[in-house]
Write a structure and sequence with these properties.
Elements lengths: L8 H17 L12 H4 L12 H4 L7 H10 L4 H6 L15
Length: 99
């Protein structure tokens, strides 16, 4: 378990990707929507009442939000992000600033 302060929109999106990709990276499932709430973000399942998907999906534009988020989940992590984040593990860990 780790706890970090979300430091802005970019960090929030990286943290969301980490949460949704972790079961895949751990070898537990084939696709993120097979286990996590990613299915709700992609419109494959109805989100539970407590899950608000709008904040993250709005960051992917007005149109095609779910398709853009799916592409984001499936994309490789860029090397610049990986190189600048000393805590990056398996290419998916979201990182904040040193504090």
């Amino acid at each position: 378990f780790a706890s970090v302060t979300i430091e802005g929109d970019a960090h929030l999106v990286r943290a969301s990707r980490y949460i949704h990709r972790y079961p895949v990276e751990a070898g537990l499932v084939q696709e993120p929507w097979d286990w996590s709430s990613a299915g709700a973000y992609l419109g494959l399942t109805a989100p539970p009442d407590w899950l608000g998907t709008a904040t993250i999906l709005e960051m992917f534009g007005v149109h095609r939000q779910q398709q853009e988020y799916r592409a984001f989940l499936e994309a490789e992590v860029d090397e610049t992000t990986r190189a600048t984040c000393k805590e990056w593990q398996d290419g998916v860990r979201p990182c904040g600033s040193d504090p």
